From TrEMBL:
Keyword Lipid biosynthesis applies: no
Organism: Halorubrum distributum
Transmembrane segments: 12-29, 82-103, 132-150, 162-184, 204-224, 245-274, 300-321, 330-348, 360-382
Name of the protein in its database record: Phospholipid carrier-dependent glycosyltransferase
Repressor among keywords: no
A GO term, aspect molecular function: pentosyltransferase activity
Record's GO cellular component terms: plasma membrane
Pfam families in the cross-refs: PMT_2 (PF13231)
Highest taxon, organism lineage: Archaea
Amino acid sequence: MSINNHTHTETFIIGLLTASTAILQIIAVEGRSIWVDENYSLLFASRPMPELISLVMDYDVHPPTYYIFLRLWTQLFGHSELSLRSLSILFGTLTIPVFYLLAREFFARRGAFLSTGLVALSPYLIEMAGMIRMYSLLVLVTIASYYTFIRLLDTWSRQWQLLYFLSSMVLVYTHIMGLTVIAAQTVQAFARLWRTQSAEEARTLFTTDLGLGVVFLPWVFVVLNQASKLAEKPQRPLPGVTDFFGLQLTLTGGYPAFGVFGILSAVGIGGWIMRRYCGENFSNVSGNLMRDLSTNEGTISMAVVWFSVPIVLQFGFAYIIPRTFDYRHMIMSIVPLFLLVTFGAITLSDDDLLPVRTDAVFVVLVCLLVGVSVLGISAGYASDPHPDWEEGVTYVDNRAPSGAAVAFDSSLIQSQFTYYSDRGTEFELYGYPESSPLIRGQKSWPGIGSVDAESDEVWFLASHASNEREFMSTMNDTHALAEKRNFDGLIVYRFVEENTSQPAVFR
């Protein structure tokens, strides 16, 4: 087959995978309500640029790159839910062709197509691509950073040094845990310098990392300030072995994929160890390891370091500040996981390993991997862990009289209410127990005796905090609970004055 035909085939397959990913991501956001963390994105992106950056510095540990993109995006396309989510979908879609470029540094076409297909069918990446958060951008710039890093090691050109610097700068200014990806790359860089002892390579890597450090230095002070605030809040349980396996289930998309991916990753790593470090090479383990880590090509050792370093550092950070632990903060490790799985599939298709047609084995493995991925996607479509805010707010709009007091168990979720409500200006809105400076004009709950409302009804919306019981106790003296409804996790309470005789409704 000619080179042009190969190119056309590559373009067609990657184009098909890219289009399929976009369709799957759009389907996944159907009917999904804006949830609490996405509130921050809405609030920040709705402010003028200087105020946006100031608010992010005061209230978020993560840098403002995504919020700036979202601000510019909404100015062009508006604030509809599809518009808000489409930016992340765009980043998630662009991940496919960019990842294929990276995969070609690790594999021939067959392996690159397989690993790219796994990315396209990843249930977790499809879910994250629908969020009004920075996670799909984080995955995209992580891949770009690693691709330019490998190309820099291969060429040592000024062009690739600049591209690596720029992609890594966007990475660390997208999410604070982007630093763990730089740490993984630094491990390989040190291994290379240990082997080559090249002053020119050392100078190139040092100036690049120094530049990244200088550029990121202003945000270090923000991180330290936010870390001190987090340390003062109630701490979460420390992560352990259960959390590690929970992370793997999350990244792979469920038990079937976890089992298949785990076995193939183990086969890939085991085959690599057998080939490189057993037999006659066993006596030079350290030399072989250094050579593998310091190569200018994509290798399984690079994938192992890339997969493990962000996870190890995230678990370590959690023991210093427990509130920082979050599976989503380790999403960067999903990319090398697919590389490891592909290494395993290729290892099992090795002519020297199995006395059967290797093409047939590879096809069976591809079908198995696609099958478990599709199962994970189906399960993700069937379950939405977030409350149905649109339905809950519509219910309040249809039932609450003008002038009713509406309070929120967390001040920030008022923005979700006003986003979906057509009558938000007709109600007296209160943050409970106090207002948030992020919500313009929000009032703190003054106690029922001081509420200045035209109606005797009080509505209380509880989503993720634990203030329901406390709020109900403040209402007991003057108001009775008349109604309680659950909208997939959004609890809506309606209180009426004691002298109003209405039957209570609980659903």
